[in-house]
């Protein structure tokens, strides 16, 4: 169990950094595209680039500088920031001293609800309004598989929590 706690701790911190990176990138993109600040660069053919702060090195490239495209780009980046944030909660649940806790069950529940309900709905809406050609079916399928796996894991955790609470009452 020690290796699980060590691995989950490492993954918790890594995925948390990735989540915040995505969320900060979404905000950075939105601010630069909205205000066309010093890190925003218009390119030929209505394309655009967002540069790394205080450099002229491109960080993100956009196919077309329209409100719909920028909104789609920002929402896509933010959606994956939320995904990684919820995933970090799952890894955090495996770091705890007690494995079967209400804390862990709640984080697993959030993750499977995100993947089974929220992501497919948002991805379908995203596909309807999308300018880009993304493999939406494959993305939805992958999230459904993850969601189902965590749904079953959540059921195991709920049963473990029940048994643990009964054991605590019995002693």
How would you sum up this structure, described in words?
The chain is mostly helical and 171 residues long. It folds into 2 domains: 1-95; 96-171. The protein is built from 4 helices and 3 strands; from the N terminus they run αβββααα. The protein has helices at residues 2-35, 67-93, 102-129, 136-170, and strands spanning 40-43, 47-51, 58-62. Strands 1-2-3 form a 3-stranded antiparallel sheet. A hairpin with a 3-residue loop joins strand 1 and strand 2 (47-51). Helix 1 packs antiparallel against helix 2 and helix 2 runs antiparallel to helix 3. It starts with a helix and ends with a helix. The mean pLDDT is 89.
Strand order of the largest sheet: 1-2-3
Number of separate domains: 2
Q: Radius of gyration in whole Å, from Cα?
A: 20 Å
Shape: elongated
Main sheet specs: 3 strands, antiparallel
Q: What structural class results from the helix and strand content?
A: mainly alpha
Helix content: over 70%
Q: How do the SSEs run, as a string of H and E?
A: HEEEHHH
Tally of individual helices: 4
Strand content: 5-15%
Which regions contain 5 or more consecutive residues with pLDDT less than 50? Answer: none
* Distance between the amino and carboxyl termini: 24 Å
Mean pLDDT level: 89
Extended strand count: 3
């Amino acid at each position: 169990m020690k290796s699980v706690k060590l691995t989950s701790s490492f993954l918790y911190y890594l995925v948390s950094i990735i989540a915040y990176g995505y969320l900060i990138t979404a905000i950075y993109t939105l601010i630069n595209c909205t205000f066309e600040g010093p890190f925003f660069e218009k390119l030929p053919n209505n394309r655009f680039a967002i540069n790394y702060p205080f450099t002229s090195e491109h960080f993100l490239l956009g196919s077309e500088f329209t409100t719909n495209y920028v909104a789609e780009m920002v929402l896509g980046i933010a959606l994956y920031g939320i995904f990684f944030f919820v995933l970090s909660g799952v890894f955090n649940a495996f770091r705890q001293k007690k494995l079967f806790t209400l804390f862990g069950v709640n984080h697993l529940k959030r993750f499977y609800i995100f993947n089974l309900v929220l992501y497919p709905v948002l991805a379908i809406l995203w596909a309807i309004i999308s300018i880009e050609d993304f493999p939406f079916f494959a993305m939805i399928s992958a999230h459904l598989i993850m969601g189902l796996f965590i749904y079953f894991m959540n059921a195991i955790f709920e049963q473990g929590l029940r048994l643990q609470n009964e054991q605590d009452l019995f002693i």
